[in-house]
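Our consortium's second objective concerns turning raw sequence data into structural hypotheses that experimental partners can test. To show how far this objective has progressed, the report includes one record in full. It was chosen at random from the queue rather than selected for favorable results. The single chain below, 252 residues long, was entered without modification.
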Amino acid sequence: MHPKWIHKFELKPGKWIYHPSHEAIAIGAQIKKSVREAWTPPDNYFHLRSGGHVEALKLHLDSAIFCHLDIKDFFGSVNRSRITRSLKPFFGYAHAREMANDSTVQHPVEKGRYMLPYGFVQSPLLASLAFYDSALGRCLRDIGGRGLRVSIYVDDLVISGNDLSLINEAISDVHLAAKKSHFQFNELKSQGPSDKITAFNIDISKSKIEIHAEKLHEFHENFLATDNFHVKRGIGSYIRSVNYDQAIDFEM
């Protein structure tokens, strides 16, 4: 067994999931606690606050034009040096390097490179801090000051507003900043600018969010297939949190 992880598996091409060891979980929890005490994430980092991706989309309900960008291999793009630089102002170099060493694993393909893995307790917070300190993170903060709305949920970015020229300018700036930061967007998942986009299997347009039709059908099949009260209640509760009208067929 590796000292940091018990096993790993490739969820899909290029995306590895690591199951941390008991020792790594304890170390990760302490790192997460220390970083949480030192740094307060922005309110629009929705993966680090209650409400999650649903609230991330509700932020944009007053907008008429939307753009969705997905960062490719987000955690894999956060290496040991990037983590050390982000932690250094809070903890000094020696402690920052130690925390970065404890939080990274050798890249499964690129030998000699160390990355932040999916599955470690501290990974979402450290990735967020590194992202915040990057040129892309700074660019998104600047865009938020231009009268546009920006939400971040791990590797999913949604930008919206009511002025197409402002949004086009922002998208151009974001792509330049991503290149400078060594982050890449998944062009197959990028959408917009448009008056309607789909993110997290949820359609969003001006003043309206609703679960995408295919996903709603999948929920309905799962709802009918189970006799488990808690599963049924969980499905219905989630759908109501997105769109109350869509939950009519999920009453118990």
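The partners drew two points from this record. DSSP finds eight helices and twelve strands in the chain. The mean pLDDT is 93. Both points have been shared with the crystallography group to help prioritize constructs.
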